[in-house]
Amino acid sequence: MYEFSILNFAATPNSQLHEPHHVDERRIRSQFVTAAALQRDLEREIAGEVRFDPVSRALYATDASVYQIEPLGVVVPRTAQDMVKTVAIARRHGVSITARGGGTSQAGQAIGAGLQLDTSKYLNHILEVNVAERWAWVEPGVVLDELNAALRPHGLRFAPDISTASRATIGGMIANNSSGARSVLYGKTIDHVLELKVVLADATTAHFRPIAGADLDAASAEDTLAGACHRTVRETAARCREEIDRRFPKVLRRVGGYNLDLFVDPAKPVNLAKIVVGSEGTLALVTSAKVNLVPLPAARAVLAIEFAVLLDALAATPLVLRHQPSAVEVMDRFILDHARESAALDALRRSILRTEPGALLCVEMYGDRAADLTPRLDALERDLATSGLRCQWRRFVEPAEQARVWSLRESALGLSMAMKGDAKSLSFVEDTAVAPEKLRDYIERFLQIIRGHGTSAGVYAHASVGCLHVRPVVNMKTAEGVAKFAAIANDIADLVLEFGGALSGEHGDGMVRGPFTEKMFGSVLYGAFREVKRAFDPDGVFNPGKIIDTPPLTANLRYGAGYRTPDPPTFFDYSDHGGLGRAVEMCSGLGVCRKTLDGTMCPSYMATREEKHSTRGRANTLRLTMAGRLGEAGLGDAGIHDVLDLCLECRACKAECPVGVDVARFKSEFLAGYWRRHGTPLSARAMAHIHTLSSWASPIAPLANLVSQSGVGRWINEQLLGIDRRRTPPAFVRKTFRAQFAERQRAPGPEPPAPTRGARSASPQSQLPPVVLFADTFTNFNHPHIGLAAADVLAAASVHVRLLPHGCCGRPMISKGLLDAARAAASANTNALHDAAARGERIVFLEPSCLSAVREDAPALLRGDAQRRARTVAGACVLFEEYLDHASQAGQASPDLRPGPARVLVHGHCHQKAMGLLSPAKALLARIPSATIVDLDAGCCGMAGSFGYAREHYDVSRAIGERKLLPAARAMTEGTVLVAAGTSCREQVRHFTGVRALHPAELLAALIRN
Ligand SMILES: Cc1cc2nc3c(=O)[nH]c(=O)nc-3n(C[C@H](O)[C@H](O)[C@H](O)COP(=O)(O)OP(=O)(O)OC[C@H]3O[C@@H](n4cnc5c(N)ncnc54)[C@H](O)[C@@H]3O)c2cc1C
Ligand code: SF4
Predict the structure, then answer these.
(1) 3 state DSSP class of 700
(2) pLDDT for the residue numbered 49
(3) Relative to the alpha carbon of 145, which ligand is closest?
(4) Confidence band (pLDDT; 50, 70, 90) for 753?
(5) d(CA 374, CA 384)
(6) pLDDT at 15
(7) 843 bridge partner residues
(8) What is the pLDDT of residues 563-573, one digit of tens each?
(9) Is 39 touching ligand 1 by the criterion CB < 6 Å?
């Protein structure tokens, strides 16, 4: 027997997390504020949402930095007017405001102790686009990728191309003065912000744009806060002109401090928008921005240069820069080697690299025509050949090839941040910049410092602009680790000064570099920055403690010396992480789960745009709950249930999150404990045991169908089991798949099923071992024709099929948190399937979620010898499409197909995608003569097992499906079929569109040549 309960687990509280945060005097004042009065005023006066509950505050306590500060409350404004009113109310109550977009900041500037103001949910509109003049007015919560998707038809884009484009907002980019890989061509955000409409600290509004001459004098003379800001910025910049010239680093990438350098030339117009850019929300709140747009490049090419040693790659950068590249990105072996951790990524790595390089330098060039790029690439290659540097290169001219290079870069970088255990690769000296010609020597010294502190780090750099992203590995849960963190930060600050560089090249100062602002700029400019801050924000309303007057470097840490990670007993085996607590801690806040345009993660976020319904929100809530931060009830709290409730357990996060956070499993684990405390509801028991219920219903199928599909039956189902009455449950069959299959086996005829029927390569030598077809619940009791179709296709491929007496895969029990039952199912299935698996037989699944249950969950639910046996079974389990595709590719057998539909739309089941099994499905379908295969990339269907059946999930289930899948199904025309391996996906399509989607086996069986 195992002992489980993560419910009553008493985490050793991290005393630091319970003590008042060491922020600033405003924080101290905040503690005396009557939160209730503030909340009441906000609720009365603004149209947006106001949240002061512990879970909401926990959700906004972190960004992508090493810090954590719990806010007093959260405001989600609906309008710019809400932002104005929030400032007025906060000021009245003496509370600070920290604005927030995607919360992807790495320096702690997106968190604060007062109000968090989240613009991403409602203030995300593109207000106006002027194609002819190439500008747009946008609200601050617009996500960069969404803006650029809207601009693409006009051949335009917002230029700064940051890595977090899928979830970072324009407001956050403005406040951080963000920039990306192509900044050598496009500069930083500041170069593309034309005008800003802002709320000032006294709750007045201002429109900052370039003004000069009499207009400027008039603006500066105004007896308003805006007037005072104009006066202070002009006077301070003029007074400090020489010091600015002396102390501002002469590099393309400097975002630290305030941009006083842009105001020193008295001949230039003054645009206060330019000082708001990069001010990290400390000077004003942006309510809308007029931004410059650039044309999309007509042609581009990439030269991937492999160097034996990193320093040679950096030494080559000045040479490369002479060829006007649009990007020069470098990554070292440490990062490239992380690609080996995933089979798919390793294949990608090997398809791009020719050697085992010490570093890869990716040079991109833009041109007006593809033909223009060839001579430029030739010239660069000539220079490399005569440079004396040891390197090899390869051109990538096709867009798809280039996408593969950038994809390797993104994925390897993501994986390099995914370290299991307490020592993590941390973001704190990750953003320094020096002149590119100094980069080689600088990195050499940088790495010496890292090594000198007894640790390591991978190197990734925007070499074109000398901006270096290095994340040293440090354990912040020990006093030694925290001391190392501070020592490295100090040493690197000294090094940057010595090289005349900038401590922050793109990520900002926040709290991690703010403590060094005075060191970097000197006391005179530090004083000037303080004057600017005081002029804009005399009462310290806006995001205090960032850039200047920051708390000590090691205050407000997310972890900290002595932090003990909770390690509760669990059902699933988390030993590879060192326990559930550490598995949850894998989320470092990168926020990829807030993307909305592609992929599957995270369907509930895509539908709701709520942090709490994102993977990050869920991981953070669980982490804080387990650490005892969310009150007495802990994991048994209804608020936590609410956070996990909309998780569809699609497992997209396991595959798409760069650090592989697996919320679906956390949810099962949580539910198991929750039911223990609150009792397991009948609806959960019924859904979990759908296999048993189906086995009871099937023999009386006509009656069971009449009852379950009638209006009265559906009403009863809704009352008893919470199944929405609008849903019609799938009909049962009286003669199950097993029964029909057995009948066929008994019927006279060739035995085993005619191996050469429709087979292409059915020579006796190519005969494959028999396979076990897994008769899942839906195939067996509801859709036997799919099982028979699969058997036909396998027979046509000369494969002998048999069934074994196994039970339910366990997926419904896992998904409903009935983990004792799931474990029993895992054990029973292991016993039933082990011998076949050990003999080398493959176990073929038709339903991806059943496959993932047996292949991935069952071994994790068992321990010891049972676990080892379950792993043997797991190793034999394959998806039907995967099996046939591999067999076909190996030339062992493939069904001989005749032409069928002209277009086959493929909708991948989430678990199928999470296991990387959509590609074989597409490859298999591509064997249908003259068919065009279209991957819908529609994300999740919204049904996800029984999720969409639940009354309380009906609307969100529909909203998720309506993103892409359901409209695509409705738009189908003659000659097109929709194929989906998942029962729930097909059911969702049928329910909302009336379209009958097919299992791949059904389509293939219909096309077998007789
Ligand atoms: C993995 C990773 C990669 C990254 N890559 C890059 C990169 O390539 N280039 C780059 O420049 N950065 C990068 N960043 C940093 C970060 O993603 C960017 O700075 C991004 O622009 C922040 O946008 P956001 O919407 O998440 O802002 P948030 O983090 O939510 O906020 C950023 C700042 O903006 C302020 N703010 C937000 N909205 C407003 C508003 N309406 N008015 C006033 N202030 C406001 C906040 O208070 C905060 O100080 C990366 C971060 C991560 C985690
Ligand atoms: S399992 Fe799916 S729905 Fe749940 S958090 Fe992960 S991505 Fe979101």
Answers:
(1) helix
(2) 98
(3) 1
(4) very low
(5) 15
(6) 33
(7) 772, 877
(8) 999 999 999 99
(9) no
